[in-house]
Amino acid sequence: MGIRNNPVWSFFSSLRLTLVLLAVLAVLAVVGTLVPQQESAQELAKRLSPGTIRILGTLQVFDLYHSVWFLLAMGLLTANLIICSINRFPASWRRFKAEAPADEHLFRDLPPERTVYVKGTRDEVVTRAEQALRRRYRDVRRTDASRGPVLQGQKGRITHLGVYAVHLGVLLIVAGGVAGSLFGFDAYVHIGEGETATTADLMGGKGQHNLGFGIRCDRFLIETYENGMPKTYQSDLTFLKNGRPALQGALLVNHPLTFEGIRFYQSSYGQSADGKARLSYSRKGGDRKDEAVTLGESFILPNGEGTVQVLRVEENMMQMGPAVKLGVRSGRGAVQFWVFQEIERIREGNPGLFEQVPLFNPGLFAPYVFSLRGIDARYYTVLKAATDPGVPLVAAGGLFLMAGLLLVFIVDHRRVWVLVEEAKGKVRVAVTGRGLRTSAGLDRELSDLVRVFREKGDAQG
């Protein structure tokens, strides 16, 4: 039993299998688009029951493009395309190499516009006809028939192999997708100003990835609007190889940097817990005192009247600017309130604010009044690191796919025959042709060939 009669071979060479696999991949792609993937699925998971999460997790729905189902479908499609190509290649190659015989029946019942009588000897006309064909076709041959020489020209035979360029393009795209899934990664790198990171946290809580080099955040810059919202921010980075600077650059949103094949994007930023809030407070009729405290740090008021602790530090609290939340413990109990840096401006825009929202009153712990002079923030930057070794394969696959589609649907395999014969003491030229697809372009080419003889003054009445 030949290999082509093998049931397994027949299964993988089936066009029906191709259609089923494409449908399966389409369904998986739709599910992967509608269902949040990896870290984005956390919000959806909060709304689902534990049993549902367990089932969906087992089916790898939240990481579909790395799932066994997706890789299996891609593998089956790869095998299907390869075996289909092997099965059909011999027939396509025969069509590519085939030479159509110059049968005289090709010139029977030609319309009058496809024939013309010309001056000169038959050999001279054959030479001119061959020159005209060679200007339009790369493959020109001569055959001597009983009625006279027949010249054949053809072009576009490469269209018979276009489908294999499409198959190769799909295979390269599949290979690129699998390579990116297996060997690529997406991760985040958190770096404080002046610090160096050598590892990245893989998305989905899959552990850490050793970068093999260091990234130092030399400086983090942020520019804000008047309302405190960030306008632009950037990280000035130095990439260290073996402890020595190898690359320096500014990383901005939508302006990534690439080092050692890994692409880094500016993702977000935050404030480190060791940033200091510069506070001032005074007792009615007393002198002002200053304190610089970090998040969670405490200080004692004069005469032990209370202990003040910084509970929260916000760079832009409710779009009203920098603020800190203080907690004061004393013999009178405990009280918490916010202290805004721009409290006077806020009060002007919101008369009666302290009565409406006592929590915003910096004098809530009477007789002390607190003020925020500023926050000496120490920022950290968050970089997204991504590498996909399959990108070159996908790009090459896309080029092959486009080229193959152009060959299949645009390029036409056309053959043209020119018969030069002596008839009634004259030299008669007959032109005919065939194309792989019915095309007005072939008719124009045949008319153009006939017109060549007429325009050169060769035609006889």
Describe the protein.
There is one protein chain. The protein is built from eleven helices and 20 strands. It has about 450 residues and is α+β, with helices and mostly antiparallel strands. The protein folds into four domains: about 5-95; about 100-155 and about 410-455, Kinase associated domain 1, KA1 (TATA-Binding Protein, 2-Layer Sandwich), CATH 3.30.310.80; about 180-275 and about 380-395, Tick-borne Encephalitis virus Glycoprotein, domain 1; about 275-375, no CATH class. The strands form four sheets. It has an eight-stranded antiparallel beta sheet. A five-stranded antiparallel beta sheet has the order 1-20-19-3-2. The longest helix is centred in the N-terminal third of the chain and has 30 residues, at about 70-95. The chain is elongated and about 130 Å long.
Layout of secondary structure:
Blueprint (H helix, E strand, L loop, with lengths): L6 H6 L2 H20 L6 H6 L3 H9 L9 H30 L17 E4 L3 H13 L4 E6 L4 E7 L6 H22 L1 E8 L3 E7 L5 E17 L5 E12 L2 E9 L4 E3 L2 E10 L4 E8 L4 E7 L3 E3 L6 E8 L8 E8 L2 E8 L2 H7 L3 H4 L11 E9 L2 E9 L3 H19 L4 E10 L2 E10 L4 H16 L6
Antiparallel strand pairs: 1-20, 2-3, 3-19, 4-5, 4-18, 5-6, 6-7, 7-8, 9-10, 10-18, 11-12, 11-17, 13-14, 14-15, 15-16, 19-20
